[in-house]
Design a protein that fits this description.
Layout lengths: L6 E5 L4 H13 L4 E4 L7 H6 L8 E4 L2 E4 L1 H11 L11 H16 L5
Parallel strand pairs: 1-2
Antiparallel strand pairs: 1-3, 3-4
Helix pairs in contact: 1-3
The protein binds glutathione.
């Protein structure tokens, strides 16, 4: 991996927010280093990268942190444009996909 494209992901094994970012990285074929966080004893790096919410996921791209899973997904799609795009061009189809993605994500609260 070129030094100018170093990607790491701070996560937690049971986090659906982290899983959605991992899926996005794998979908695009982006190599990354995974850093498992202990959410009861957060690392100084996590606190430095996400001082507002202090949560995972945090994507670090060439030393620059990006936080909040949906913002991370947009960043990935806008940065790695060579691979398949996450959303189609058609605005109505985009809206439908966003609805179902949100629906599926909310299901964890039902079980
Ligand atoms: N809105 C955030 C939610 C992230 C989130 O809630 N992460 C949880 C793990 S599932 C976390 O880091 N919790 C640690 C804490 O609340 O101290 C996102 O979409 O990234």
């Amino acid at each position: 991996m070129a030094e100018e494209n170093k990607v790491s992901l701070h996560g937690f094994f049971a986090s659906p927010y982290v899983r959605r970012v991992e899926l996005a990285l794998k979908f695009k074929g982006i190599p990354y280093e995974y850093v498992e966080e202990d959410l009861k004893n957060k690392s100084s790096l996590l606190l430095k990268y996400n001082p507002v919410h202090k949560k995972v996921p945090v994507l670090v791209h060439n030393g620059k942190p990006i936080v909040e899973s949906l913002i991370i997904l947009e960043y990935i799609d806008e940065t790695w444009k060579n691979g398949p795009r996450f959303l189609p061009e058609d605005p109505y189809k985009r809206a439908q996909i966003r609805f179902w993605a949100s629906f599926v994500h909310q299901q964890k609260y039902i079980v």
